[in-house]
Every structure is written in structure tokens, then in C-alpha cells.
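Training component of the fellowship. As part of building independent skills, the fellow (R.M.) carried out the full modelling exercise for a liganded target. The chosen ligand was thiamine diphosphate. The inputs are recorded below so that the supervisory panel can assess the work.
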Amino acid sequence: MTPRKGEAKQPAAKPNISGEDLLSYYRDMLLIRRFEEKAGQLYGMGLIGGFCHLYIGQEAVVVGLEAAAEEGDKRITSYRDHGHMLACGMDAKGVMAELTGRIGGYSKGKGGSMHMFSKEKHFYGGHGIVGAQVPLGAGLAFADKYLENGRVTFAYFGDGAANQGQIYETFNMAALWKLPVIFVIENNQYAMGTAQKRSTSTPDLYTRGEAFGIPGEVVDGMDVLAVKDAGERAVAHCRAGEGPYILEVKTYRYRGHSMSDPAKYRTREEVQKMREERDAIEHVRDLLLTGKHATEDDLKSIDREIKAIVNESAEFAKESPEPPLEELWTDIYAESVKG
Ligand SMILES: Cc1ncc(C[n+]2csc(CCOP(=O)(O)OP(=O)(O)O)c2C)c(N)n1
Ligand SMILES: [Mg+2]
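Fellow's submitted model of the complex:
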């Protein structure tokens, strides 16, 4: 096992991918972006309460990794979770209605933005405590290893979370027991208002598993094809029984940390530069057009399709009733736990 793979091993994105696949990544990323923009609007209108962390800018991370996943694989993440849910196929209506706290939401309106789950899509949350999902992700992988079902778990966390102690306790156990878990560090360069260079002694987060013998690689998170390629290598490693793998995916969030972010820690120019020069959706749009996989008109009709899905989800989220008081007493204890 090579304990470390640097940037040199990162292959350039290969545009020799089918037009059909490219279109599906375009669609999936656009759905996340438009959904998040709509969520931002509903928040502004007072229809969404509590915490709300948007994923705009980071879309290629989840879409690329979902392209490398198979049915039955699991995913778990932090509070910045709407993109992960949409990318794994959860219904936009159920996600939006959870944001507005309505009965039609994935947690019957009782969880909100940070606490949604889907057993059917193997999505295990939605966690508000920074880093808490990482040991839970290793636990999911432990169960899969025990059941010998060949599944892998994607445990996502941020650059800020990567400095927590529980991450390294998890790395140790995951490596010791060769758990099929991919630790995905979504390095969007900030933890709330703290830039990575102000909080982190060594910048290369993908090397953080070295002490435990966990291989890692750094990936361009604004290039969905590069993310998919790296995801496939990580998945192959896990499925072969080689144990955990680390992907440090370099990305960028365009919006504030949450809806209440004064954004004093970076310049508008910095954000604008990323949007203009590195946007992941624009990148795929260019590949589609230059590769003649789609025309401007095709893309316009996809835009309309996505807008309709998002508008429908917002209507549903406004019309679905609030949960009745009796719901306060449900979903508290597990009634039965099956293997
Ligand atoms: C244990 C804990 N400490 C502090 C917080 C407050 N907090 C919420 S998000 C966050 C920053 C995390 O940054 P990062 O891991 O980079 O994830 P990102 O928000 O960039 O996706 C902090 C400190 C928390 N929720 N939980
Ligand atoms: Mg971060």
C-alpha cells in the first residue's frame, strides 16, 4: 500500500466521457445550485427558520463522488447537507419541506436543514456537531464489513473538522480494522470565518492519514470528472478490502458559512475570481458545448426543467402543513433494530 499519493498522481480530467454522463452531471449540479438559491430566498422571506448552510460552489464534490458510488453505498455528512441529499437521489420536495419545518419533509418537519435522513437512499444525516459524523461513518462501515456486503461509506467533513481529535481516533480504528470508509475532506478553505492557513499547521490535509497508513490524495473539487476519477480509485481500494482512503477535495463555497455570516474574512474579489474562473457547472457546460454533446438550446431546456423541479419543491414546502403536536412524541426511540 502506498501511504501517500501527491498531486503528481492526479490525472488531468479526461473529457473522453460520454455526452450522456456529462449531461447528467450538469443536471445534478444545476439542481443543487438552483435548489440552494431557492432555499436562500425562502430563508430571506422568513419561511425557513434556524440554521441553514448553503452548498453553492461545492456541487462537483458530491456529484462526482455519487458517480463513483453504487446502489447500497452509504453517505453521512455535516450540516452543509442539502447537496448530498439531492445528489444521492432524495426528493427535492421532501428536502425543501424539511427546511420549512413541514410534515412533508424527510424528518416530518422536526429536524430542519441539519437533521435529515433517508433509509432508502442510505443517507445518514445531516449532523450539526462539527466532526461528529466521522466516527458514525466509520461505524456504518464497520457494520458493512461485519455483514460482508461489499458496501462502502462516504464520510464527508470539512477542513475545520479535520483538526479535531475524534477524526484521528477514527482514522486509527478504521485503519486497524480495514473498514471500507472513504474520508472525504471537503476543503472549502474556510471554517466559518477562519481561513485554513490561520488554523492549520500543515496545509496538505490528504496526508493526515499517513501516521495510520491510510492513503490519501488531493483532488480538484471544481472538476467533476477529476472528482469521479479519484472517487473510483477510492471505492476500488475500499471494495478490495484494503481499508480506508482519504480524499482531500479542494473546493470553495460562494456564499457565507450560514445565512448569518457577515463575510468580513474574505474579499468580494476572491469570491468573484473563483466564480468566474473555476466554476464547476460552467466547466461542464463548456465541455458539453465544445464537445458538441449539447446545444445552447438543449441546455436552456435543462435549465427550465430544473427550475420547474425547484419551484415545485418550494410550492410543496409552503403548502405542506406544519406537523401536529402529537408528532412531538414520535420517532424518539427505535422500535426494532434489524441487521
Ligand atoms: C463541536 C463543534 N464546535 C463548534 C461548532 C460551531 N461550528 C459550526 S460549523 C464550524 C466550522 C466548520 O468548518 P468546516 O469543517 O471547514 O466545514 P464547512 O462549514 O466549511 O463546510 C464551527 C466551528 C460546532 N457546530 N460543533
Ligand atoms: Mg470548511
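The panel noted the following from the submitted structure. Residues 158-160, 188, 190-191 surround magnesium ion (ligand 2) (CB under 6 Å). The two ends are 32 Å apart (CA to CA).
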